[in-house]
Write a structure and sequence with these properties.
- The protein has about 290 residues and is of the alpha/beta class.
- It folds into 2 domains: about 220 residues, Rossmann fold (3-Layer(aba) Sandwich), CATH 3.40.50.10780; about 55 residues, no CATH class.
- Helix content is about 30%, strand content about 25%.
- The chain has 7 helices and 14 strands.
- The strands form 3 sheets. The protein has a 7-stranded mixed beta sheet, sandwiched between helices.
- A hairpin with a 2-residue loop joins strand 8 and strand 9.
- The longest helix has 21 residues.
- The relative contact order is 0.16.
Length: about 290
């Protein structure tokens, strides 16, 4: 069994502030260790379920956050950037399941460190007119490759967002939102035990159409039906804070204007993810803005 783990940072156990997750922040080094501990818990769970190959993609910011010399030796690490596919770099149909660790809710949501990919510069995103963020776009890309998202760990808002896309995803709430930069934290040991147990249970139970168990925002277990899959093509729309970003992106073939700050394009979800990475690099070059403003 081949398992792919995508690791973000804002939804990691104990982290609540930009200083926890940004290089140079006063607690960033502690955040790196916490991120590695959460990922190691997921790796242990995957091994318990019978995984024979585990690939971990460092999917946050500089993508050099995980402490590689303390990462579980059973996992291979994809580290650094730029990556053509960003948060899903290295994901292929050859994987049996995907696990998302440290994920957060989309821009505008009431969630810990909520944003969509670029902090304040992206005001909103839609996938086939449905509000989306990182969770929705990652899920759609994985589904288009035939790889189910088996588990997602993050704050309770991220867990709710994930199961809204696919009720069959088993979730682990490692903290509970109080504000965008405050949360009620689960004890570290309890949180990591929950990640390990949930990953082990979810991967040991093939998704065959039966309801899947997941933790809701209260930490209780709930059930839901698996998704019926994604369309072969979809439309991605993004509203930027700056009209200059939207105007510049119109130079890319296939990108059309919705309004002065919103552009869209159509393609398969993996192709959309790849092109969206280019959009973000254009936006970064034009704005040079720090996130979380």
């Amino acid at each position: 069994m081949r398992i792919y783990i995508s690791a973000d940072m804002e939804g990691i156990t104990g982290l609540v502030d930009a200083d926890d997750v940004q290089p140079g922040g006063r607690d960033y080094e502690r955040g790196r260790r916490a991120m590695t501990d959460d990922v190691n818990a997921a790796v242990r769970g995957a091994l318990r379920a019978g995984a024979t190959e585990i690939v971990v993609n460092d999917a946050h910011g500089p993508m050099r956050n995980l402490v590689s010399d303390t990462l579980h030796p059973a996992a291979r690490l994809i580290r650094g950037k730029p990556k053509t596919m960003g948060m899903v770099e290295g994901l292929t149909p050859a994987f049996d399941a995907m696990v998302c660790v440290g994920y957060h809710s989309r821009a505008g949501a009431h969630g810990v460190l909520s944003h969509s990919f670029m902090g304040h510069e992206i005001e909103d995103m839609w996938l086939d007119e449905r509000p989306t963020g990182e969770i929705g776009l990652v899920h759609a890309s994985a589904a288009a490759m035939g790889v189910p998202v088996a588990v997602l760990a993050g704050d309770d808002a991220a867990c709710q967002e994930a199961t809204a896309w696919d009720p069959a995803i088993a979730t682990v709430a490692v903290k509970y939102v109080r504000s965008r930069f405050a949360a009620e934290l689960r004890p570290d040991a309890e949180s990591r035990a929950a990640i390990e147990e949930t990953v082990a249970a979810a991967l040991a139970t093939p998704r065959t159409g039966e309801p899947s168990a997941s933790e809701d925002s209260t930490g209780e277990r709930s059930t839901g039906e698996p998704s019926t899959g994604e369309p072969s093509t979809a439309t991605l729309a993004v509203r930027w804070q700056s009209s200059a970003v939207a105007e510049t992106l119109l130079g890319i073939p296939g990108v059309t204007q919705v309004d002065t700050r919103t552009v869209q394009t159509t393609g398969t979800p993996p192709d959309l993810f790849r092109q969206f990475g280019v959009w973000m690099r254009v936006a970064t070059a034009l704005t040079n803005q720090a996130p979380y403003c």
